[in-house]
Amino acid sequence: MRLVLLAITAAIALSGCVLHESTPLFTDADATLALGTKPLNFAVYELKDEGWVPTSELPSPATITGNHYVVTEPVADNEAPLFDEYYFITLDPTHYLIQANAKGEADYAGATWDGTTLLVSLLDCAVLKTHLATNLLVVFEDDSCSLQPSKLPPKELLAKLLPVLPPPTLRFVVK
Protein backbone atom coordinates (compact mmCIF):
# COMPACT_ATOMS: atom_id res chain seq x y z
CA MET A 1 0.00 0.00 0.00
CA ARG A 2 2.82 2.40 0.87
CA LEU A 3 4.48 1.95 -2.50
CA VAL A 4 1.18 2.55 -4.30
CA LEU A 5 0.76 5.99 -2.74
CA LEU A 6 4.31 7.06 -3.57
CA ALA A 7 4.02 5.90 -7.18
CA ILE A 8 0.69 7.69 -7.61
CA THR A 9 2.25 10.85 -6.14
CA ALA A 10 5.19 10.65 -8.54
CA ALA A 11 2.94 10.02 -11.54
CA ILE A 12 0.72 13.01 -10.74
CA ALA A 13 3.73 15.25 -10.13
CA LEU A 14 5.48 14.22 -13.35
CA SER A 15 2.44 14.18 -15.60
CA GLY A 16 1.99 17.91 -15.82
CA CYS A 17 -1.57 19.00 -15.27
CA VAL A 18 -4.28 16.70 -14.04
CA LEU A 19 -7.84 17.46 -13.00
CA HIS A 20 -7.40 19.78 -10.01
CA GLU A 21 -9.74 21.40 -7.51
CA SER A 22 -8.77 24.21 -5.14
CA THR A 23 -11.02 22.61 -2.52
CA PRO A 24 -11.27 18.80 -2.23
CA LEU A 25 -14.61 17.46 -3.44
CA PHE A 26 -14.78 14.46 -1.09
CA THR A 27 -14.43 13.82 2.62
CA ASP A 28 -13.69 10.75 4.68
CA ALA A 29 -17.41 9.88 4.69
CA ASP A 30 -17.30 9.51 0.88
CA ALA A 31 -14.22 7.29 0.80
CA THR A 32 -13.58 3.57 1.10
CA LEU A 33 -10.44 1.65 2.02
CA ALA A 34 -10.30 0.10 -1.45
CA LEU A 35 -6.89 -1.49 -0.88
CA GLY A 36 -7.93 -2.86 2.49
CA THR A 37 -6.43 -2.33 5.91
CA LYS A 38 -3.60 -4.87 5.81
CA PRO A 39 -0.22 -4.13 4.23
CA LEU A 40 0.00 -5.36 0.64
CA ASN A 41 3.22 -6.02 -1.22
CA PHE A 42 3.02 -4.82 -4.83
CA ALA A 43 5.14 -5.17 -7.93
CA VAL A 44 4.88 -1.78 -9.64
CA TYR A 45 5.01 -1.11 -13.37
CA GLU A 46 4.94 2.09 -15.41
CA LEU A 47 3.71 2.21 -19.00
CA LYS A 48 6.58 3.22 -21.28
CA ASP A 49 7.04 3.12 -25.05
CA GLU A 50 8.27 -0.46 -24.77
CA GLY A 51 5.31 -1.57 -22.63
CA TRP A 52 4.93 -2.21 -18.88
CA VAL A 53 8.32 -1.67 -17.22
CA PRO A 54 9.02 -2.52 -13.55
CA THR A 55 9.84 0.49 -11.38
CA SER A 56 12.27 0.63 -8.50
CA GLU A 57 10.61 0.20 -5.14
CA LEU A 58 10.61 3.29 -2.94
CA PRO A 59 9.11 3.42 0.55
CA SER A 60 6.16 5.65 1.31
CA PRO A 61 5.06 5.21 4.92
CA ALA A 62 1.30 5.41 5.20
CA THR A 63 -1.33 4.94 7.85
CA ILE A 64 -5.08 4.64 7.78
CA THR A 65 -7.22 7.39 9.24
CA GLY A 66 -10.93 6.73 9.04
CA ASN A 67 -11.70 5.75 5.44
CA HIS A 68 -8.56 7.16 3.79
CA TYR A 69 -4.82 6.64 3.63
CA VAL A 70 -2.40 9.21 5.08
CA VAL A 71 1.29 9.68 4.31
CA THR A 72 2.75 10.97 7.55
CA GLU A 73 6.52 10.67 7.22
CA PRO A 74 9.04 12.39 4.93
CA VAL A 75 9.53 10.64 1.60
CA ALA A 76 13.10 11.78 0.82
CA ASP A 77 15.71 13.91 2.55
CA ASN A 78 13.20 14.91 5.24
CA GLU A 79 10.93 16.56 2.66
CA ALA A 80 7.22 16.65 3.33
CA PRO A 81 5.18 14.36 1.08
CA LEU A 82 3.76 16.04 -2.03
CA PHE A 83 0.29 14.67 -1.25
CA ASP A 84 -0.62 13.68 2.27
CA GLU A 85 -4.12 12.17 2.02
CA TYR A 86 -5.52 9.66 -0.47
CA TYR A 87 -9.25 9.02 -0.81
CA PHE A 88 -10.59 6.14 -2.94
CA ILE A 89 -14.13 7.01 -4.05
CA THR A 90 -16.15 4.06 -5.37
CA LEU A 91 -17.72 4.78 -8.77
CA ASP A 92 -18.82 1.19 -9.45
CA PRO A 93 -17.71 -2.22 -8.14
CA THR A 94 -14.28 -2.06 -9.84
CA HIS A 95 -13.76 1.63 -10.70
CA TYR A 96 -12.54 4.25 -8.27
CA LEU A 97 -11.64 7.88 -8.28
CA ILE A 98 -8.49 8.69 -6.36
CA GLN A 99 -8.44 12.10 -4.68
CA ALA A 100 -4.90 13.07 -3.66
CA ASN A 101 -5.00 15.97 -1.20
CA ALA A 102 -2.24 18.45 -0.44
CA LYS A 103 -2.39 21.78 1.37
CA GLY A 104 -6.18 21.95 1.15
CA GLU A 105 -6.28 21.26 -2.60
CA ALA A 106 -6.79 18.03 -4.57
CA ASP A 107 -5.70 16.29 -7.77
CA TYR A 108 -7.58 13.34 -9.30
CA ALA A 109 -6.92 10.02 -11.02
CA GLY A 110 -9.11 7.12 -12.02
CA ALA A 111 -8.40 3.52 -11.02
CA THR A 112 -9.62 -0.02 -11.39
CA TRP A 113 -9.00 -2.60 -8.65
CA ASP A 114 -9.91 -6.27 -8.90
CA GLY A 115 -8.30 -7.39 -5.65
CA THR A 116 -4.98 -8.32 -7.23
CA THR A 117 -4.23 -5.57 -9.79
CA LEU A 118 -4.66 -1.82 -9.45
CA LEU A 119 -4.54 0.17 -12.71
CA VAL A 120 -4.23 3.95 -12.37
CA SER A 121 -5.26 6.41 -15.11
CA LEU A 122 -4.37 10.04 -14.53
CA LEU A 123 -7.10 12.53 -15.38
CA ASP A 124 -4.61 14.42 -17.54
CA CYS A 125 -5.97 17.76 -18.75
CA ALA A 126 -4.35 17.51 -22.20
CA VAL A 127 -5.95 14.10 -22.79
CA LEU A 128 -9.34 15.14 -21.40
CA LYS A 129 -9.32 18.19 -23.68
CA THR A 130 -9.24 15.96 -26.76
CA HIS A 131 -12.70 14.54 -25.95
CA LEU A 132 -15.57 16.81 -26.93
CA ALA A 133 -17.84 15.36 -24.25
CA THR A 134 -15.53 16.59 -21.48
CA ASN A 135 -16.09 20.23 -22.47
CA LEU A 136 -19.49 20.01 -20.78
CA LEU A 137 -17.93 18.59 -17.61
CA VAL A 138 -14.53 20.24 -17.35
CA VAL A 139 -13.25 23.82 -17.49
CA PHE A 140 -9.93 24.14 -19.35
CA GLU A 141 -7.72 27.13 -18.62
CA ASP A 142 -4.27 27.12 -20.23
CA ASP A 143 -2.77 23.76 -19.21
CA SER A 144 -4.96 23.27 -16.12
CA CYS A 145 -8.47 21.92 -15.73
CA SER A 146 -11.19 21.59 -13.10
CA LEU A 147 -14.82 20.50 -13.01
CA GLN A 148 -17.53 22.74 -14.42
CA PRO A 149 -19.86 24.13 -11.76
CA SER A 150 -22.80 21.76 -11.69
CA LYS A 151 -25.93 20.90 -9.78
CA LEU A 152 -24.89 17.24 -9.97
CA PRO A 153 -23.06 15.75 -6.98
CA PRO A 154 -19.28 15.55 -7.66
CA LYS A 155 -19.28 11.74 -7.62
CA GLU A 156 -21.99 11.61 -10.30
CA LEU A 157 -20.22 14.24 -12.39
CA LEU A 158 -16.85 12.46 -12.19
CA ALA A 159 -18.45 9.11 -13.02
CA LYS A 160 -19.34 10.65 -16.38
CA LEU A 161 -15.59 10.87 -17.11
CA LEU A 162 -15.16 7.06 -16.91
CA PRO A 163 -15.79 6.53 -20.66
CA VAL A 164 -12.98 8.97 -21.54
CA LEU A 165 -10.40 7.87 -18.98
CA PRO A 166 -6.95 7.85 -20.52
CA PRO A 167 -5.23 4.47 -20.64
CA PRO A 168 -3.61 3.46 -17.34
CA THR A 169 -0.01 4.54 -16.83
CA LEU A 170 0.60 2.67 -13.55
CA ARG A 171 -0.01 -0.98 -12.76
CA PHE A 172 0.31 -2.48 -9.27
CA VAL A 173 0.17 -6.26 -8.96
CA VAL A 174 -0.04 -7.95 -5.56
CA LYS A 175 3.02 -10.19 -5.10
Description:
The protein is mainly β and 175 residues long. The chain has one domain. 14% of the residues lie in helices and 36% in strands. The protein has helices at residues 2-15, 125-129, 154-159; strands spanning 20-21, 42-48, 51-54, 62-65, 68-71, 85-90, 95-102, 105-113, 117-122, 138-141, 144-147, 170-174. Strands 1, 2, 3, 4, 5, 6, 7, 8, 9 and 12 form a 10-stranded antiparallel beta sheet that branches. The relative contact order is 0.24.
List the SSEs and their pairings.
Layout: H1 2-15, E1 20-21, E2 42-48, E3 51-54, E4 62-65, E5 68-71, E6 85-90, E7 95-102, E8 105-113, E9 117-122, H2 125-129, E10 138-141, E11 144-147, H3 154-159, E12 170-174
Antiparallel strand pairs: 1-8, 2-3, 2-12, 4-5, 5-6, 6-7, 7-8, 8-9, 9-12, 10-11
Q: Summary?
A:
The protein is mainly beta. Helix content is 14%, strand content 36%. It has helices at residues 2-15, 125-129, 154-159; strands at 20-21, 42-48, 51-54, 62-65, 68-71, 85-90, 95-102, 105-113, 117-122, 138-141, 144-147, 170-174.
- Taking pLDDT < 50 over at least 5 consecutive residues as the criterion, the unreliable ranges are none
Largest sheet geometry = 10 strands, antiparallel
Residues in helix, %: 10-25%
Q: Report Rg.
A: 15 Å
Structural class: mainly beta
| Spatial gap, N to C terminus | 12 Å
Topology pattern, helix = H, strand = E: HEEEEEEEEEHEEHE
Count of spatially separate domains: 1
Sheet-strand content, in percent, reads: 35-45%
Indicate the overall shape: globular
What oligomerization state is this entry in?
Answer: single chain
